[in-house]
Structure to design on (370 residues):
C-alpha cells in the first residue's frame, strides 16, 4: 500500500469532495489549509486503520461515493485504497493503466460505497470513442444509487447522449449486507467481461462461485432463429417469406441488443438488467471479488487463489494479482511467441491457462471478517 502521509491524504481530496470530507472527519465543512494539515497529521499519526475507518464516513456523505480512476497510478499497489465499513466489512480497491497498454489512459473505474456495503468495477470500451468518459459517468451514477444499479443504468441514457455512439462499458457490482444471521450478498449485477466471484471457506477447503457467460438472452436469440427458420421452410409464398425476413431482422435486432446489454456491454440505450445473484450467505472469512478483464484475461480466478499465500487475505490477493499480471503483461510478446504451437487445451509457455494481454486493471475485494 502507498505510504500514509499528510501529503498523499491531501492529494486524494478533490476540491468538490473537501466539504464533505471535512464534515465527516472533523465535523466542520471549512478548514484553512494549515488547520487541515494539522488535523490530518494527527489522524495519520493515529495509524492507517483509524484514518481509513474515519474516511469511510466520507463516502456516505459524498453523493457518488469514492470513484478511483487510476490515471496517475503506475501499478495497482500505488493506487490501492482500503476502507472498513460501519458493519465491519473490509474493502480494498485499486485500478491502474496496466503494463505495455497502448492506449496510455485508464478506462477502468472502481466505485466504493462501504457505508452501503457496495462496490463496482466499470471497464470502459470503445478505444478513442469516449470509453473512459462513459465509464466514469456510469461509475458516478452507480455510486449515487448503490441499492439500485438499474436507476444508474437508466440515467446514463441522458448523461452520455453527447458522447460517441460507440462508447460503452462493462460492469460488475455487488452489495453486501448484514442481518441477525450474519453477512450475505444482497445482490450482484454483471454486464460483459467484469468477473464477479465469491470465495467461501468450507471444511473441505474453498468453495468458489463465479459468473459465466450463459444467459437467457443467448437462448432467446437461438429460439427466434429456429422459430422463423421453421416458418420459412413451411411456405413458398414470396411475400410471406419477405415478411418473415423482416420479422426475423426486427426480432433478432431486439434480442441481440438485449444480449449485448447482458453479455457484452452497456451503451447509452441500455435497458434495465436482472441481478445474477441474490441473497447468498457469506460465512466468516468469505471474499467477494470484482475483477476487470485486464486481470482475468491474464489469470483465471482459480489460478489467483492457488498462487495466493494461505491463509487468504485481501492484501495477499491484491499482491498476487499485481505480481503475476505485471509479469505476464511485461513479457506478453515473448510468451505468445514461445506458445505459438501450443494446442488449445495446453497452457502457455509460462504455465498459465490464459492468453497474456496488456490492459487496464481494476479490482475491488470485500472481505467478511473472521
Amino acid at each position: 500500500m502507498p505510504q500514509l502521509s499528510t501529503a498523499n491524504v491531501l492529494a486524494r481530496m478533490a476540491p468538490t469532495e473537501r466539504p464533505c470530507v471535512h464534515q465527516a472527519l472533523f465535523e466542520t465543512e471549512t478548514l484553512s489549509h494549515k488547520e487541515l494539515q494539522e488535523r490530518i497529521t494527527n489522524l495519520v499519526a493515529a495509524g492507517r486503520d483509524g484514518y481509513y475507518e474515519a474516511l469511510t464516513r466520507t463516502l456516505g456523505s459524498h453523493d457518488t461515493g469514492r470513484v478511483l480512476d487510476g490515471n496517475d497510478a503506475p501499478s495497482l499497489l500505488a493506487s490501492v485504497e482500503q476502507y472498513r465499513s460501519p458493519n465491519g466489512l473490509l474493502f480494498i480497491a485499486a485500478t491502474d493503466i496496466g503494463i505495455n497498454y497502448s492506449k496510455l489512459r485508464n478506462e477502468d473505474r472502481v466505485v466504493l460505497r462501504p457505508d452501503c456495503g457496495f462496490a463496482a468495477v466499470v471497464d470502459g470500451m470503445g478505444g478513442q470513442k469516449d470509453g473512459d468518459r462513459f465509464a466514469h459517468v456510469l461509475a458516478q451514477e452507480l455510486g449515487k444509487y448503490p441499492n439500485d444499479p438499474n436507476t444508474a443504468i437508466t440515467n446514463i441514457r441522458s448523461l452520455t447522449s453527447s458522447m460517441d455512439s460507440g462508447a460503452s462499458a462493462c460492469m460488475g457490482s455487488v452489495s453486501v449486507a448484514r442481518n441477525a444471521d450474519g453477512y450475505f450478498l444482497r445482490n450482484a449485477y454483471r454486464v460483459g467481461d467484469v468477473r464477479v466471484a465469491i470465495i467461501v471457506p468450507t471444511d473441505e477447503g474453498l468453495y468458489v462461485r463465479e459468473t459465466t457467460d450463459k444467459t437467457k438472452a443467448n437462448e432467446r436469440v437461438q429460439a427466434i432463429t429456429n422459430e422463423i427458420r421453421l416458418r420459412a421452410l413451411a411456405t413458398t409464398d414470396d411475400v410471406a417469406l419477405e415478411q418473415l425476413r423482416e420479422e426475423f431482422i426486427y426480432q433478432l435486432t431486439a434480442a441481440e441488443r438485449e444480449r449485448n446489454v447482458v453479455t457484452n456491454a452497456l451503451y447509452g440505450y441500455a435497458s434495465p438488467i436482472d441481478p445474477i445473484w441474490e441473497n447468498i450467505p457469506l460465512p466468516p472469512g468469505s471474499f467477494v471479488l470484482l475483477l476487470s478483464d485486464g486481470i482475468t484475461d491474464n489469470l483465471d480466478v482459480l489460478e489467483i487463489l492457488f498462487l495466493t499465500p494461505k491463509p487468504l487475505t485481501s492484501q495477499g490477493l491484491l499482491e498476487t494479482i499485481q505480481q503475476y499480471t505485471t509479469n505476464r503483461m511485461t513479457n506478453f510478446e515473448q510468451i505468445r511467441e514461445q506458445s505459438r504451437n501450443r494446442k488449445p487445451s495446453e497452457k502457455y509457455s509460462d504455465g498459465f491457462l490464459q492468453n497474456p494481454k496488456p490492459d487496464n486493471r481494476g479490482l475491488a475485494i470485500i472481505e467478511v471478517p473472521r
User: Anything to note?
Assistant: Residues 256-263 have pLDDT under 50 and may be disordered. The first helix runs from residue 6 to 11. The CA atoms of residues 196 and 290 lie 5 Å apart.
